[in-house]
Amino acid sequence: MIQETLLETLQILLIVFALMVMVEYLELRFKDKIGEMLTKKPLSQYVSSSFLGATPGCVGTFFVVSLYVHGIVSFGALAAVMVATAGDEAFVMLAMMPRTALLLIAICFLLGIIAGFLADGVAKKIKLKTNLPCEIEIHEEERQDIKHFLKEHVYGHVIKKHMPKLFLWLFFTMLTIELLMLRFDLGAILPKNMLFLILLAALVGILPSSGPHLIFFLLFAEGLIPFSILLVNSIVQDGHGLLPLLSYTIKDSIYVKVFNVAFGLVVGLILILMGV
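RESULT FIELD:
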């Protein structure tokens, strides 16, 4: 079992690596055009931010956070990118279940746009005071030559920062689920109360990291939880996207996380009523 799980993990990781490098390059290549789109009307901010969030990985989210810190985009744009993003888990989902992953990404993209409108509306109504723009870049990536890209982005970012943790989380999560399925009937062990499961998915989604959220996707892949639970977790979680914002302002980080949790729970409750 360990050998099979290791082989499957490496196969998935190879696909994830190729996808991450491709997305990293595209983000760098079209950064200026994306920046122009984000500085237009509120709707353009929500759509562009949500699109960047829906793009697998954390680069697009880091970019929007940087613009928010500099006062270029609104709180709604920040909420949109956080709702839409699924972090590195999106790469794993695309590698294992592409159709489900694309459906999830599309739904999160649309929900991100809605969240952007709602977040700015709520912020305006309650007169939310966010931190003043910062004059220091917290994340800047420049288009350089191929040597720079391979050294700094492929090796320094994708391989060095993402691959080891992603491998460990993926391997041990898959192995744990396989072992549990051999000894127990997970379908019988997991809580049947949908409200509890949705709350659990939202609570785990608070963690500002890529990895822990894989459990929900793998449980869904095994048919042990419904799509609604996976969606709620994807809405609330933001991979590593929140980390640069935490380094600048804890207050704004709490604001956007509270909004995302509330938004995710509301979506979850609607899905319960719909029987999804």
